[in-house]
Amino acid sequence: MEGLSPDLEVVQQDSGTVEMLPVRHVDVAWTMWVGLAAAFAIFFAVLEWLPLGSQLDMHQRATLAVTLWACTIWITGALPKAISGLSIPVLLYVSGATSKSVAFAGFTSNTSLLVIGSFLIASALNARHLDRRIALTIMSWAKPKISSFLKTYILAQTATAVIIPAIVARAAIFLPIVQGTNALLEPGEKGQRARQAMTMSAVGFAAVFAGPLFLTGSMPNVIVAHQLNHQAGAHIYWFQWFWLNLPLAGLIPIMYFWTLRHFKIQDVGLRHGPETITTERAKLGPLNLTDKLSLGVVALAVVLWATGHWTHLSTGLVAVGAACLLFLPGLLSGYWQRIERHMMWGVWLLLGGAVCMSNAFTVTKTNVWLSHQLQHFFPTADWLVLFILAIVTMQILRIGIVSNVGSIALFTPIIVTLAMTLHLNPVSFSMGVLNVDSYALLIPLEIEACLVAYASGEFTFGEFFRAGAPLTAIAILYMVVVMIPWWALIGYPIWQP
Protein backbone atom coordinates (compact mmCIF):
# COMPACT_ATOMS: atom_id res chain seq x y z
CA MET A 1 0.00 0.00 0.00
CA GLU A 2 1.28 3.46 -0.90
CA GLY A 3 3.01 5.56 1.75
CA LEU A 4 4.05 2.76 4.08
CA SER A 5 7.48 1.87 5.34
CA PRO A 6 9.23 -0.18 2.65
CA ASP A 7 9.65 -3.19 4.93
CA LEU A 8 6.10 -3.90 6.07
CA GLU A 9 2.59 -3.27 4.88
CA VAL A 10 -0.64 -3.34 6.87
CA VAL A 11 -3.22 -5.73 5.39
CA GLN A 12 -6.85 -5.63 6.51
CA GLN A 13 -8.37 -9.10 6.51
CA ASP A 14 -12.07 -9.84 6.04
CA SER A 15 -12.23 -11.01 9.63
CA GLY A 16 -11.31 -7.54 10.81
CA THR A 17 -7.81 -8.48 11.90
CA VAL A 18 -4.72 -6.68 10.72
CA GLU A 19 -1.63 -8.43 9.40
CA MET A 20 1.82 -6.85 8.97
CA LEU A 21 3.29 -8.53 5.88
CA PRO A 22 6.52 -8.01 3.91
CA VAL A 23 5.98 -6.01 0.74
CA ARG A 24 7.46 -6.98 -2.60
CA HIS A 25 10.95 -5.69 -3.33
CA VAL A 26 11.14 -2.57 -5.47
CA ASP A 27 14.12 -0.77 -6.92
CA VAL A 28 15.33 2.11 -4.79
CA ALA A 29 14.27 5.34 -6.46
CA TRP A 30 17.03 7.79 -7.28
CA THR A 31 15.08 10.44 -5.39
CA MET A 32 15.69 8.53 -2.16
CA TRP A 33 19.44 8.68 -2.74
CA VAL A 34 19.15 12.39 -3.50
CA GLY A 35 17.15 12.91 -0.31
CA LEU A 36 19.70 11.01 1.77
CA ALA A 37 22.57 12.97 0.24
CA ALA A 38 20.75 16.26 0.80
CA ALA A 39 20.05 15.37 4.44
CA PHE A 40 23.70 14.69 5.21
CA ALA A 41 24.85 17.70 3.18
CA ILE A 42 22.63 19.94 5.32
CA PHE A 43 23.75 18.14 8.47
CA PHE A 44 27.47 18.67 7.82
CA ALA A 45 26.95 22.20 6.49
CA VAL A 46 25.24 23.30 9.70
CA LEU A 47 27.66 21.35 11.88
CA GLU A 48 30.76 22.82 10.25
CA TRP A 49 29.79 26.23 8.87
CA LEU A 50 27.07 27.74 11.06
CA PRO A 51 29.05 30.35 13.01
CA LEU A 52 29.24 30.08 16.76
CA GLY A 53 28.67 33.14 18.90
CA SER A 54 27.96 34.36 22.37
CA GLN A 55 24.48 32.79 22.24
CA LEU A 56 25.00 29.72 20.02
CA ASP A 57 27.36 27.03 21.31
CA MET A 58 28.55 23.81 19.69
CA HIS A 59 25.91 21.66 21.41
CA GLN A 60 23.08 23.84 20.15
CA ARG A 61 24.55 23.88 16.65
CA ALA A 62 24.76 20.08 16.61
CA THR A 63 21.15 19.84 17.79
CA LEU A 64 20.03 22.11 14.94
CA ALA A 65 22.02 19.99 12.47
CA VAL A 66 20.31 16.77 13.61
CA THR A 67 16.88 18.45 13.49
CA LEU A 68 17.37 19.63 9.91
CA TRP A 69 18.71 16.18 8.95
CA ALA A 70 15.57 14.53 10.32
CA CYS A 71 13.25 17.02 8.61
CA THR A 72 14.94 16.39 5.25
CA ILE A 73 14.73 12.62 5.68
CA TRP A 74 11.02 12.78 6.56
CA ILE A 75 10.14 15.10 3.70
CA THR A 76 12.05 13.13 1.05
CA GLY A 77 11.28 9.66 2.43
CA ALA A 78 14.94 8.72 2.00
CA LEU A 79 14.84 6.25 4.90
CA PRO A 80 12.09 4.22 6.54
CA LYS A 81 10.48 6.32 9.26
CA ALA A 82 11.46 3.79 11.95
CA ILE A 83 15.13 3.92 10.93
CA SER A 84 15.09 7.71 10.93
CA GLY A 85 13.73 7.66 14.48
CA LEU A 86 16.42 5.25 15.61
CA SER A 87 19.10 7.32 13.87
CA ILE A 88 18.25 10.57 15.67
CA PRO A 89 19.74 9.68 19.10
CA VAL A 90 22.76 8.13 17.36
CA LEU A 91 23.43 11.40 15.50
CA LEU A 92 22.80 13.44 18.64
CA TYR A 93 25.51 11.47 20.41
CA VAL A 94 28.12 11.21 17.64
CA SER A 95 27.73 14.90 16.72
CA GLY A 96 28.45 15.92 20.30
CA ALA A 97 25.04 17.51 20.87
CA THR A 98 24.41 15.58 24.10
CA SER A 99 25.72 12.72 26.18
CA LYS A 100 24.64 9.17 25.37
CA SER A 101 22.19 9.00 28.28
CA VAL A 102 20.47 12.23 27.22
CA ALA A 103 20.51 11.31 23.52
CA PHE A 104 18.58 8.07 24.09
CA ALA A 105 16.40 9.28 26.98
CA GLY A 106 13.40 9.71 24.69
CA PHE A 107 12.93 5.96 24.50
CA THR A 108 12.43 5.75 28.28
CA SER A 109 10.30 8.90 28.55
CA ASN A 110 6.71 8.86 29.74
CA THR A 111 5.48 9.60 26.20
CA SER A 112 7.40 6.65 24.77
CA LEU A 113 6.15 4.28 27.49
CA LEU A 114 2.59 5.49 26.97
CA VAL A 115 2.78 4.80 23.25
CA ILE A 116 4.27 1.32 23.51
CA GLY A 117 1.83 0.37 26.28
CA SER A 118 -1.15 1.72 24.34
CA PHE A 119 -0.06 -0.14 21.20
CA LEU A 120 0.18 -3.39 23.18
CA ILE A 121 -3.31 -2.84 24.59
CA ALA A 122 -4.71 -2.12 21.11
CA SER A 123 -3.03 -5.23 19.67
CA ALA A 124 -4.37 -7.33 22.54
CA LEU A 125 -7.91 -6.17 21.80
CA ASN A 126 -7.36 -7.11 18.17
CA ALA A 127 -6.02 -10.57 19.03
CA ARG A 128 -9.18 -11.45 20.96
CA HIS A 129 -11.43 -9.81 18.33
CA LEU A 130 -12.66 -7.46 21.04
CA ASP A 131 -12.16 -4.56 18.65
CA ARG A 132 -14.57 -6.18 16.19
CA ARG A 133 -17.05 -6.89 18.97
CA ILE A 134 -17.00 -3.26 20.15
CA ALA A 135 -17.21 -1.98 16.57
CA LEU A 136 -20.23 -4.15 15.81
CA THR A 137 -21.91 -2.98 19.02
CA ILE A 138 -21.39 0.68 18.14
CA MET A 139 -22.50 0.08 14.55
CA SER A 140 -25.72 -1.50 15.81
CA TRP A 141 -26.64 1.86 17.36
CA ALA A 142 -26.04 3.86 14.20
CA LYS A 143 -27.84 4.03 10.90
CA PRO A 144 -26.27 1.87 8.16
CA LYS A 145 -24.39 4.82 6.66
CA ILE A 146 -20.76 5.74 7.09
CA SER A 147 -21.70 9.31 8.06
CA SER A 148 -23.64 8.00 11.05
CA PHE A 149 -20.73 5.79 12.16
CA LEU A 150 -18.28 8.66 11.79
CA LYS A 151 -20.48 10.90 13.92
CA THR A 152 -20.74 8.19 16.58
CA TYR A 153 -16.97 7.74 16.79
CA ILE A 154 -16.33 11.50 16.95
CA LEU A 155 -18.78 11.89 19.82
CA ALA A 156 -17.20 8.92 21.60
CA GLN A 157 -13.72 10.43 21.18
CA THR A 158 -14.96 13.73 22.63
CA ALA A 159 -16.57 12.01 25.60
CA THR A 160 -13.46 9.97 26.43
CA ALA A 161 -11.29 13.10 26.21
CA VAL A 162 -12.69 14.05 29.62
CA ILE A 163 -11.04 11.08 31.31
CA ILE A 164 -8.17 9.89 29.08
CA PRO A 165 -5.34 12.45 29.26
CA ALA A 166 -3.55 11.51 26.04
CA ILE A 167 -4.75 11.82 22.46
CA VAL A 168 -2.38 9.04 21.39
CA ALA A 169 -3.95 6.70 23.96
CA ARG A 170 -7.43 7.47 22.63
CA ALA A 171 -6.26 7.01 19.05
CA ALA A 172 -4.64 3.67 19.87
CA ILE A 173 -7.80 2.48 21.61
CA PHE A 174 -10.07 3.54 18.74
CA LEU A 175 -7.81 2.27 15.94
CA PRO A 176 -8.73 -1.44 16.19
CA ILE A 177 -12.40 -0.52 16.70
CA VAL A 178 -12.46 1.60 13.55
CA GLN A 179 -10.58 -1.11 11.66
CA GLY A 180 -13.36 -3.50 12.61
CA THR A 181 -15.87 -1.09 11.08
CA ASN A 182 -13.76 -0.68 7.94
CA ALA A 183 -13.87 -4.43 7.32
CA LEU A 184 -17.64 -4.22 6.80
CA LEU A 185 -17.61 -1.34 4.32
CA GLU A 186 -18.57 -1.89 0.70
CA PRO A 187 -15.69 -2.63 -1.71
CA GLY A 188 -14.50 -0.44 -4.57
CA GLU A 189 -13.47 3.20 -4.81
CA LYS A 190 -16.27 4.44 -2.55
CA GLY A 191 -15.36 1.94 0.12
CA GLN A 192 -11.69 2.93 -0.09
CA ARG A 193 -12.59 6.61 0.38
CA ALA A 194 -14.76 5.67 3.34
CA ARG A 195 -11.95 3.66 4.95
CA GLN A 196 -9.60 6.61 4.53
CA ALA A 197 -12.15 8.99 6.03
CA MET A 198 -12.90 6.71 8.97
CA THR A 199 -9.25 6.03 9.80
CA MET A 200 -8.08 9.59 9.30
CA SER A 201 -11.00 11.30 11.06
CA ALA A 202 -12.39 8.82 13.59
CA VAL A 203 -8.91 7.84 14.83
CA GLY A 204 -6.72 10.89 14.19
CA PHE A 205 -8.74 14.07 13.69
CA ALA A 206 -11.37 13.24 16.32
CA ALA A 207 -8.72 12.63 18.99
CA VAL A 208 -6.96 15.86 18.01
CA PHE A 209 -10.06 18.10 17.94
CA ALA A 210 -11.36 16.82 21.28
CA GLY A 211 -8.01 17.31 23.02
CA PRO A 212 -7.88 21.11 23.58
CA LEU A 213 -11.35 21.25 25.17
CA PHE A 214 -10.42 19.75 28.53
CA LEU A 215 -7.31 20.17 30.63
CA THR A 216 -7.20 16.37 30.93
CA GLY A 217 -7.91 15.90 27.23
CA SER A 218 -4.31 16.18 26.11
CA MET A 219 -0.94 16.19 27.85
CA PRO A 220 0.17 19.41 26.08
CA ASN A 221 -2.71 21.20 27.82
CA VAL A 222 -1.16 20.47 31.19
CA ILE A 223 2.21 21.78 29.99
CA VAL A 224 0.67 25.04 28.71
CA ALA A 225 -1.37 25.59 31.89
CA HIS A 226 1.66 24.89 34.09
CA GLN A 227 3.85 27.30 32.16
CA LEU A 228 1.22 30.08 32.17
CA ASN A 229 0.69 29.62 35.90
CA HIS A 230 4.44 29.65 36.52
CA GLN A 231 5.48 32.49 34.21
CA ALA A 232 2.37 34.68 34.08
CA GLY A 233 0.55 33.82 37.33
CA ALA A 234 -2.56 32.86 35.34
CA HIS A 235 -4.10 30.40 37.90
CA ILE A 236 -5.54 28.14 35.19
CA TYR A 237 -6.97 24.85 36.45
CA TRP A 238 -9.51 22.32 35.10
CA PHE A 239 -12.63 24.51 35.01
CA GLN A 240 -10.74 27.67 33.99
CA TRP A 241 -9.18 25.78 31.10
CA PHE A 242 -12.58 24.49 29.95
CA TRP A 243 -14.10 27.98 30.15
CA LEU A 244 -11.23 29.52 28.20
CA ASN A 245 -11.50 26.92 25.42
CA LEU A 246 -15.23 26.22 25.36
CA PRO A 247 -15.84 27.73 21.87
CA LEU A 248 -13.29 25.31 20.40
CA ALA A 249 -16.12 22.76 20.49
CA GLY A 250 -17.39 24.48 17.36
CA LEU A 251 -14.45 23.10 15.39
CA ILE A 252 -15.67 19.51 15.90
CA PRO A 253 -18.78 19.74 13.67
CA ILE A 254 -16.73 21.72 11.14
CA MET A 255 -14.25 18.83 11.00
CA TYR A 256 -17.10 16.33 10.62
CA PHE A 257 -18.77 18.11 7.71
CA TRP A 258 -15.43 18.81 6.03
CA THR A 259 -14.61 15.09 6.16
CA LEU A 260 -17.94 14.20 4.54
CA ARG A 261 -17.44 16.81 1.82
CA HIS A 262 -13.78 16.09 1.12
CA PHE A 263 -14.13 12.31 0.87
CA LYS A 264 -17.65 12.40 -0.65
CA ILE A 265 -18.94 9.63 1.61
CA GLN A 266 -22.40 10.91 2.56
CA ASP A 267 -24.14 7.99 0.85
CA VAL A 268 -21.58 5.22 1.37
CA GLY A 269 -23.11 2.22 3.07
CA LEU A 270 -22.06 -1.16 4.40
CA ARG A 271 -21.08 -4.14 2.33
CA HIS A 272 -23.82 -5.92 4.25
CA GLY A 273 -27.01 -4.67 5.81
CA PRO A 274 -28.02 -4.33 9.48
CA GLU A 275 -29.12 -7.96 9.56
CA THR A 276 -25.54 -8.98 8.81
CA ILE A 277 -24.29 -6.94 11.77
CA THR A 278 -26.66 -8.91 13.99
CA THR A 279 -25.42 -12.16 12.46
CA GLU A 280 -21.77 -11.20 12.88
CA ARG A 281 -22.32 -10.28 16.54
CA ALA A 282 -23.98 -13.64 17.10
CA LYS A 283 -20.99 -15.43 15.54
CA LEU A 284 -18.69 -13.90 18.14
CA GLY A 285 -20.75 -15.44 20.90
CA PRO A 286 -20.89 -14.23 24.50
CA LEU A 287 -17.89 -12.79 26.30
CA ASN A 288 -15.86 -15.46 28.07
CA LEU A 289 -13.88 -14.98 31.26
CA THR A 290 -10.66 -14.09 29.39
CA ASP A 291 -12.46 -11.40 27.42
CA LYS A 292 -14.05 -9.95 30.53
CA LEU A 293 -10.77 -9.89 32.43
CA SER A 294 -9.01 -8.27 29.46
CA LEU A 295 -11.66 -5.57 29.23
CA GLY A 296 -11.39 -5.14 32.99
CA VAL A 297 -7.66 -4.46 32.71
CA VAL A 298 -8.30 -1.88 29.98
CA ALA A 299 -11.02 -0.27 32.12
CA LEU A 300 -8.60 -0.15 35.06
CA ALA A 301 -6.05 1.65 32.87
CA VAL A 302 -8.68 4.20 31.82
CA VAL A 303 -9.64 4.84 35.46
CA LEU A 304 -6.00 5.28 36.47
CA TRP A 305 -5.43 7.67 33.57
CA ALA A 306 -8.45 9.70 34.66
CA THR A 307 -7.33 9.85 38.29
CA GLY A 308 -3.64 10.42 37.64
CA HIS A 309 -3.64 13.82 39.35
CA TRP A 310 -4.72 12.06 42.57
CA THR A 311 -2.73 8.82 42.30
CA HIS A 312 0.37 10.54 40.86
CA LEU A 313 0.86 7.58 38.51
CA SER A 314 2.25 8.59 35.13
CA THR A 315 0.22 7.70 32.05
CA GLY A 316 3.17 5.77 30.62
CA LEU A 317 3.56 3.64 33.74
CA VAL A 318 -0.17 2.87 33.74
CA ALA A 319 -0.12 1.88 30.05
CA VAL A 320 2.87 -0.44 30.38
CA GLY A 321 1.55 -1.89 33.64
CA ALA A 322 -1.84 -2.64 32.08
CA ALA A 323 -0.15 -4.22 29.07
CA CYS A 324 1.88 -6.47 31.38
CA LEU A 325 -1.26 -7.52 33.27
CA LEU A 326 -2.86 -8.60 29.99
CA PHE A 327 -0.17 -11.26 29.57
CA LEU A 328 -0.53 -12.95 32.94
CA PRO A 329 -0.99 -16.74 32.71
CA GLY A 330 -4.56 -17.52 31.72
CA LEU A 331 -5.12 -14.24 29.91
CA LEU A 332 -3.30 -13.45 26.65
CA SER A 333 0.13 -15.01 27.19
CA GLY A 334 -0.64 -17.61 24.52
CA TYR A 335 -1.42 -14.91 21.96
CA TRP A 336 1.96 -13.17 22.06
CA GLN A 337 3.19 -14.24 18.61
CA ARG A 338 0.02 -12.99 16.97
CA ILE A 339 0.06 -9.75 18.97
CA GLU A 340 3.72 -9.21 18.12
CA ARG A 341 2.88 -9.29 14.41
CA HIS A 342 0.21 -6.63 14.91
CA MET A 343 2.41 -4.25 16.89
CA MET A 344 3.37 -0.93 15.32
CA TRP A 345 7.04 -1.15 16.30
CA GLY A 346 8.14 1.23 13.56
CA VAL A 347 5.83 3.97 14.75
CA TRP A 348 7.21 3.62 18.27
CA LEU A 349 10.81 3.90 17.03
CA LEU A 350 9.92 7.02 15.08
CA LEU A 351 8.19 8.62 18.05
CA GLY A 352 11.02 7.71 20.42
CA GLY A 353 13.54 9.39 18.13
CA ALA A 354 11.42 12.53 17.93
CA VAL A 355 11.18 12.73 21.72
CA CYS A 356 14.98 12.31 21.91
CA MET A 357 15.30 15.33 19.64
CA SER A 358 12.88 17.38 21.77
CA ASN A 359 14.85 16.48 24.90
CA ALA A 360 18.04 17.66 23.22
CA PHE A 361 16.43 21.03 22.46
CA THR A 362 15.71 21.53 26.16
CA VAL A 363 18.97 20.17 27.57
CA THR A 364 21.16 22.19 25.20
CA LYS A 365 18.89 25.26 25.58
CA THR A 366 18.49 25.47 21.83
CA ASN A 367 14.93 26.62 22.57
CA VAL A 368 16.33 29.67 24.39
CA TRP A 369 18.52 30.52 21.41
CA LEU A 370 15.53 30.20 19.05
CA SER A 371 13.46 32.43 21.33
CA HIS A 372 16.09 35.16 21.04
CA GLN A 373 16.10 34.82 17.25
CA LEU A 374 12.31 35.08 17.11
CA GLN A 375 12.30 38.21 19.25
CA HIS A 376 14.65 39.93 16.79
CA PHE A 377 12.67 38.58 13.82
CA PHE A 378 9.27 39.85 14.91
CA PRO A 379 8.64 43.44 13.80
CA THR A 380 6.93 46.18 15.78
CA ALA A 381 3.46 45.81 14.31
CA ASP A 382 -0.23 45.46 15.08
CA TRP A 383 -1.13 42.68 17.53
CA LEU A 384 -3.09 40.77 14.87
CA VAL A 385 -0.09 40.71 12.54
CA LEU A 386 2.13 39.51 15.38
CA PHE A 387 -0.39 36.82 16.35
CA ILE A 388 -0.68 35.40 12.82
CA LEU A 389 3.06 35.67 12.26
CA ALA A 390 3.72 33.73 15.47
CA ILE A 391 1.29 30.99 14.40
CA VAL A 392 2.78 30.63 10.92
CA THR A 393 6.34 30.68 12.26
CA MET A 394 5.58 27.98 14.81
CA GLN A 395 3.81 25.81 12.23
CA ILE A 396 6.92 25.92 10.06
CA LEU A 397 9.32 25.22 12.91
CA ARG A 398 7.28 22.41 14.47
CA ILE A 399 7.26 20.29 11.30
CA GLY A 400 10.55 18.83 12.50
CA ILE A 401 9.04 17.62 15.78
CA VAL A 402 6.84 14.53 15.62
CA SER A 403 5.69 14.55 19.23
CA ASN A 404 2.93 17.06 19.97
CA VAL A 405 4.03 16.84 23.59
CA GLY A 406 7.63 17.52 22.61
CA SER A 407 6.58 20.41 20.39
CA ILE A 408 4.54 22.05 23.14
CA ALA A 409 7.25 21.43 25.73
CA LEU A 410 9.75 23.07 23.40
CA PHE A 411 7.73 26.08 22.25
CA THR A 412 5.58 26.98 25.30
CA PRO A 413 8.31 28.83 27.24
CA ILE A 414 9.37 30.53 24.00
CA ILE A 415 5.84 31.70 23.13
CA VAL A 416 4.96 32.85 26.67
CA THR A 417 8.23 34.81 26.88
CA LEU A 418 7.62 36.25 23.42
CA ALA A 419 4.12 37.46 24.40
CA MET A 420 5.46 39.25 27.45
CA THR A 421 8.33 40.75 25.44
CA LEU A 422 5.89 42.06 22.81
CA HIS A 423 3.63 43.47 25.58
CA LEU A 424 0.67 41.26 24.67
CA ASN A 425 -1.60 39.25 26.96
CA PRO A 426 0.36 36.06 27.71
CA VAL A 427 -2.77 33.94 28.29
CA SER A 428 -4.72 34.69 25.11
CA PHE A 429 -1.65 35.09 22.88
CA SER A 430 0.01 31.89 24.11
CA MET A 431 -3.15 29.78 24.10
CA GLY A 432 -4.07 30.99 20.62
CA VAL A 433 -0.68 30.19 19.13
CA LEU A 434 -0.19 26.93 21.04
CA ASN A 435 -3.74 25.66 20.47
CA VAL A 436 -3.15 25.83 16.73
CA ASP A 437 -0.23 23.48 17.33
CA SER A 438 -2.81 20.87 18.34
CA TYR A 439 -4.38 21.26 14.89
CA ALA A 440 -1.10 20.86 12.99
CA LEU A 441 -2.38 18.49 10.32
CA LEU A 442 0.00 19.05 7.41
CA ILE A 443 1.67 15.64 7.70
CA PRO A 444 0.75 12.72 10.01
CA LEU A 445 4.16 12.93 11.68
CA GLU A 446 3.25 16.15 13.50
CA ILE A 447 0.86 14.58 16.04
CA GLU A 448 1.09 11.09 17.53
CA ALA A 449 -2.64 10.36 17.12
CA CYS A 450 -2.39 10.95 13.37
CA LEU A 451 0.74 8.81 13.30
CA VAL A 452 -1.29 5.98 14.83
CA ALA A 453 -3.91 6.41 12.10
CA TYR A 454 -1.20 6.50 9.43
CA ALA A 455 0.21 3.19 10.68
CA SER A 456 -2.99 1.48 9.48
CA GLY A 457 -1.81 1.96 5.89
CA GLU A 458 -5.16 3.30 4.69
CA PHE A 459 -3.77 6.60 3.36
CA THR A 460 -0.58 8.24 2.14
CA PHE A 461 1.18 11.43 3.21
CA GLY A 462 -0.29 13.27 0.22
CA GLU A 463 -3.84 12.14 0.97
CA PHE A 464 -3.42 13.22 4.58
CA PHE A 465 -2.13 16.65 3.53
CA ARG A 466 -5.08 17.27 1.20
CA ALA A 467 -7.53 16.44 3.99
CA GLY A 468 -5.66 17.95 6.94
CA ALA A 469 -4.09 21.18 5.64
CA PRO A 470 -7.47 22.91 5.09
CA LEU A 471 -8.45 22.02 8.67
CA THR A 472 -5.26 23.66 9.96
CA ALA A 473 -6.11 26.80 7.95
CA ILE A 474 -9.67 26.74 9.33
CA ALA A 475 -8.31 26.43 12.89
CA ILE A 476 -6.09 29.49 12.39
CA LEU A 477 -9.03 31.51 11.03
CA TYR A 478 -11.21 30.25 13.90
CA MET A 479 -8.68 31.52 16.46
CA VAL A 480 -8.84 35.00 14.92
CA VAL A 481 -12.59 35.23 14.27
CA VAL A 482 -13.98 33.35 17.29
CA MET A 483 -11.41 32.77 20.03
CA ILE A 484 -9.78 36.22 20.24
CA PRO A 485 -13.18 37.96 20.70
CA TRP A 486 -14.15 35.27 23.24
CA TRP A 487 -11.00 35.76 25.29
CA ALA A 488 -11.51 39.53 25.22
CA LEU A 489 -15.10 39.04 26.40
CA ILE A 490 -14.07 36.98 29.44
CA GLY A 491 -11.24 39.29 30.47
CA TYR A 492 -8.17 38.32 28.43
CA PRO A 493 -7.90 40.84 25.56
CA ILE A 494 -4.86 39.90 23.53
CA TRP A 495 -3.85 43.52 22.98
CA GLN A 496 -3.51 44.23 26.72
CA PRO A 497 -0.58 42.76 28.73
From TrEMBL:
Q: What would be an example GO MF term here?
A: organic anion transmembrane transporter activity
Q: Name one Pfam family in it.
A: Na_sulph_symp
Its membrane topology, per UniProt? Multi-pass membrane protein
Database matches in InterPro entries: SLC13A/DASS (IPR001898)
Q: Which residues cross the membrane?
A: 30-50, 62-83, 103-122, 197-215, 235-258, 293-311, 317-336, 343-363, 383-401, 408-427, 439-457, 469-495
Q: Name any GO cellular component annotation.
A: plasma membrane
Q: Which UniProt keywords apply?
A: Membrane, Transmembrane, Transmembrane helix
Which domain of life does the UniProt lineage start with? Answer: Bacteria
Instruction: Give the location in the cell.
Output: Membrane
For whether the record's keyword set contains Membrane, the answer is yes
Q: Which GO terms describe its biological process?
A: carboxylic acid transmembrane transport
Family according to the record: Belongs to the SLC13A/DASS transporter (TC 2.A.47) family. NADC subfamily.
| PANTHER family the record matches | SOLUTE CARRIER FAMILY 13 MEMBER, SOLUTE CARRIER FAMILY 13 MEMBER 2
Its recorded name reads Sodium-dependent dicarboxylate transporter SdcS
